[in-house]
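Box 3.1 A note on notation
Throughout this textbook, protein chains are presented in two layers. The first layer is the amino acid sequence; the second is a C-alpha cell string describing backbone geometry. Keep the layers aligned when reading.
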Amino acid sequence: MPRKSKKQRSAEQVARQQRVRDAAKARRRPSRDDLARVLLWQMITAAQRREDARLALDKLSEAIVGELERQGFDVRESEDVFEDLADRYSDGLFPFRPKWHLKPRPMVSQP
C-alpha cells in the first residue's frame, strides 16, 4: 500500500483534532491553557491580597519571567505582559469571558 500524500495526512490530522476538540467540549473538559489561565489569575490575586503585595508580586514576576527568558522570550516584553495582567487582575473582577457553550441550557417546558 503506497504512503498517503502529505495533503491527505494533513486532512486526516485536521479531522482527528476536530474530533478531539468536539469530544473535549462535549465532556466539558478544560484545556491546559484554561487551567494555566485560572492558576495564574489565582496566583496574582493571592499575591495582591498579601500585606507585602508588591514584594510577593515581584517574586512571582521574577519566577515567571525567568522561566520565559529560559524559553527564549524577551525579558522586558515578558515583564510588560506580566505587569499588564497584574494590573488587569487588580480590580478584583473575574477576568474571563463566559464560556456559553459550557453553560447548561434551561429546560423549556412545552405546553
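The chain has one domain: 12-92. The two ends are 59 Å apart (CA to CA).
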